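Retry 2 of 3 after timeout on previous attempt. Resubmitting structure tokens to design endpoint.
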């Protein structure tokens, strides 16, 4: 039952790259076939039975149960795809499909492109409605620049949660990479569904929100590196949009801790500095004070920057898998001897 532990690590790289190809070429699978939707359905069932007392304890139980459920999905996938009767190429395709379900570059960028397209034709009201699908703030009275700012903030912040974190955990967890990615995705989905500070969710979502903060702590900080590198390379490519790598470095150091969130300020401040715009959530925070107000073109530039950072991070994670190959290979050989 543990044969998948000994799978080759080039196999993991092929799975990663094919998952990215599926994401960019096809996008999200249908809801009924989407493993993250299954996780969300389970969370929804738990939400219907929240008790009136012991809500924190219930929240811990719900969180652990959903993490175990997601991990079980990944374990079964690995178990099936690595059976001797399953051709390796088929196994790679199966694993890639399930890995793709834990991240989304295409959908992440679509959010910004949709809002930018509406702003370009002067459809501010439509842009507000589109934005409201991705942010929790009231968008009904936001100006053009505040709509643009919110769109850039969303793309920047979700680069960590929706791309960087799940693929980082996949890459560093060796033979348990898919399980690690699914465990993270369960926590992320829990946070998005119950990790709020309002009266209805404060206690039951406490465990999920804190665990999400912990798991995103390292990815949020290494996102600065990928954003800086992307800004540098995109800036020197011919006929490309201009970015300011030094501005990304300066703004991320100055403003990364301005938002209350322990993690979101890092990618947002770096993108603000690289694009050269001020990001503002009215009455809450300002990142990049003194920079220009953003518009539709700023959203497009932020999208290209985040897309570049995502692709660079994927290339780096492939190298990480290769670097860890020897370590995990030796570990697996040791386990074989013991077993």
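Retry 2 succeeded. Sequence:
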């Amino acid at each position: 039952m543990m044969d998948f532990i000994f799978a080759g690590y080039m196999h993991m790289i092929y799975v990663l790259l094919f998952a990215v190809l599926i994401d960019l070429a096809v996008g999200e699978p249908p809801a009924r076939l989407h493993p993250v939707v299954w996780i969300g359905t389970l969370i929804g069932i738990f939400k219907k039975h929240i008790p009136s007392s012991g809500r924190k304890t219930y929240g811990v139980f719900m969180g652990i149960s959903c993490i175990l459920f997601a991990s079980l999905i990944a374990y079964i996938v690995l178990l099936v795809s690595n059976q001797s009767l399953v051709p390796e190429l088929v196994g790679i395709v199966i694993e890639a499909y399930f890995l793709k379900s834990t991240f989304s570059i295409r959908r992440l960028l679509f959010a910004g492109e949709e809002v930018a397209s509406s702003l370009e034709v002067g459809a501010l009201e439509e842009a507000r409605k589109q934005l409201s699908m991705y942010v929790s703030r009231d968008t009904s009275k936001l100006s053009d620049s505040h709509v643009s700012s919110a769109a850039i903030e969303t793309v920047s912040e979700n680069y960590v949660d929706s791309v960087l974190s799940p693929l980082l955990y996949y890459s560093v967890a060796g033979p348990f990479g898919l399980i690690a990615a699914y465990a993270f995705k369960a926590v992320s989905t829990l946070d998005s569904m119950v990790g709020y500070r309002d009266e209805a969710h404060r206690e039951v979502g406490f465990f999920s929100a804190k665990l999400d903060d912990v798991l995103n702590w390292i990815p949020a900080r290494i996102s600065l590196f990928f954003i800086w590198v992307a800004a540098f390379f995109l800036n020197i490519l011919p006929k490309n949009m201009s970015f300011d790598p030094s501005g990304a470095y300066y703004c991320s150091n100055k403003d990364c801790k301005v938002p209350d969130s322990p993690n979101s300020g890092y990618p947002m401040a770096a993108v603000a500095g690289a694009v050269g715009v001020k990001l503002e959530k009215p009455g809450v925070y300002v990142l990049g004070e003194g920079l220009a107000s953003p518009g539709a073109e700023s959203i497009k530039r932020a999208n290209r920057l985040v897309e570049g950072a995502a692709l660079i991070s994927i290339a780096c994670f492939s190298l990480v898998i290769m670097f860890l190959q020897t370590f995990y290979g030796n570990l697996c050989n040791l386990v074989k001897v013991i077993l």
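Attempt log closed. The longest strand covers residues 279-281.
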